[in-house]
Specification:
Length: 220
């Protein structure tokens, strides 16, 4: 049987994109999740970036279970074992981190959960591999650029990389990332902008999500 870890990884690779955001508003978070789902998103990362992250996540999980059973719902910005445990208890499907914390890796590995750590250097990538990271987030990718992936990918043959930061809804930008050797891209504020959140521009978000998914399929 294929483990959930592999199913979720396959779903990220197929989608070619992992959308991510955090918003204080519970109602706003729910609307964004529904909009992304309606546009075709089946794997999604909510980020642990504010005081309402845990209660909002629990609510999103309820909505997911009731309305979108085929959606994988993960949590991002997990830096400590305490955070990892809190969101695992809340029912997260996978964990994303901006850093490599071996203690968080250990928690995820023990229960067979997908853990996607963030790395900025070859040394960090090597440490992430030692702790069984199947997919590594290159972060902040806007500082490193596609050239970084091109330069290091042969050092880590077979490793899957996903840049987050500096990925735009633009054919040239996406093509440069996929050509460098990434398997998917993380999309935060370039997709789910402050305007979308503060003004409730859900139609715009729907259109941009469809466009991003189309461009990714054409360029990956």
């Amino acid at each position: 049987m294929i483990s959930n870890k592999h199913k979720i990884l396959d779903a990220i690779l197929e989608q070619g994109m992992l959308p991510l955001f955090y918003q204080d508003s519970e109602a706003g978070s729910i609307e964004i999740l529904r909009t992304l789902y309606k546009a075709g998103i089946r794997v999604f990362e909510y980020t642990n970036r504010g005081k309402s992250a845990l209660p909002n996540f629990k609510k999103l999980k309820e909505i997911r279970d009731a309305e979108m059973p085929d959606l994988y719902l993960g949590i991002g910005t997990i830096k400590t074992p305490a955070d990892a445990n809190a969101f695992i208890e809340a029912g997260t499907d996978f964990i994303v981190a901006p850093i490599v914390n071996p203690a968080v890796a250990e928690i995820a590995n023990k229960i067979g959960m997908l853990w996607i750590p963030g790395c900025m250097t070859p040394t960090e990538i090597s440490i992430a591999q030692e702790h069984k990271a199947m997919l590594i987030k290159i972060f902040p990718a806007n500082i490193l650029g596609p050239e970084f992936i091109s330069s290091i990918k042969d050092l880590f043959a077979g490793q899957l990389f996903m840049p987050t930061g500096g990925v735009e809804i633009n054919a040239e930008n996406l093509k440069s990332w996929f050509k460098s050797g990434v398997c998917a891209v993380g999309m935060g504020s370039k997709l789910i902008s402050k305007d979308v959140m503060s003004k409730g521009l859900y139609d715009e978000l729907f259109d941009n999500t469809k466009l991003a998914l189309d461009l990714i399929q054409q360029n990956k």
